[in-house]
Amino acid sequence: MKRRNIRVLLPCPRPAPAAVWGEHYYGVSLGRALARAGLGGTLDYFRDSRTGLGTRRWPYSSEIDLLIWCGRDRARKRGRKLILWVLWGAEMLSDEMCAAAEHIFVASKGFADDLAARGWPASFLPQCSDTTLFSPRAPIPSLASDVLFVGNTGATSPPRPAAAEALKVGLDLSVWGVGWEGHIPNSIIRGTWVANEDLANVYASANVVLNDHNASMVTQGFASNRVFDVLASGVPLVSDRIKAESGLDPDLSALIQMFDPGGILDAVERARLLTARQISEGARLVAARHSFDNRVAEIVSVLGLR
Hints:
Layout: E1 6-10, H1 22-36, E2 40-45, E3 47-49, E4 52-54, E5 64-69, E6 81-86, H2 95-100, E7 103-106, H3 109-117, E8 122-124, E9 145-150, H4 161-168, E10 173-176, E11 189-191, H5 199-204, E12 206-211, H6 215-220, H7 225-232, E13 237-240, H8 250-253, E14 256-259, H9 264-272, H10 276-289, H11 292-303
Parallel strand pairs: 1-2, 1-5, 5-6, 6-7, 7-8, 9-10, 9-12, 10-11, 12-13, 13-14
Antiparallel strand pairs: 3-4
């Protein structure tokens, strides 16, 4: 395929005060990596409307549209080449969308293999970390925590599994995120929002960081970018066990202390036993193999851009 610029289509509105989606930050980091590779990297946001979600129409057929897929469909625009990167929400991926795509990158090896077996042009491309933001650094005393969870929860939903289990077994938990009031003691809530550029400092100031995934990611084998961000920051990670074939780098998997329901206390204790050398090796592996630059290089290779 002839080398051409790539426009990143995001499944979220433009950021607004108190309303910034995680996919926005993911898109910003991907766009910067594309720009470093000389591939454009302009961002295009979905917008809310009474008739659903749509994007601005761009007439330049010389560009490639790279849609970050998180469960929101869109029609192919004006004959432009469409590439998908499925991060989660794979159960919402229609045959019509698959047929419209020149290629489908999937952040789950098991689901990518399933699509390929059904005849779709799919390959495995896991999530990653922005290693220009996430890297080992000294802890900041004012941000110090023992066991940390960063993430939101629904006001009417049960608390996230990792945080709920940590509280149940009496771990010294700190939480950053919205929607937690009424679910957990207010003394545990450290704040409602952390700027993306400050998140590595929050991670690096914890002894152990917890992570969990939504139910479909667990059953379909999708590992989140938080897995890579925490390890890149040089911190032990405890995460729920993904049941399907994720394809996660086995060298990284060996450093992630995974827990099944009822097993978080043992996983945290295992995380505390990791040596400084093991933790440093996790950060090195993410920087070497799992940056946005690594993923852009794979996209270029698979698409045959030259």
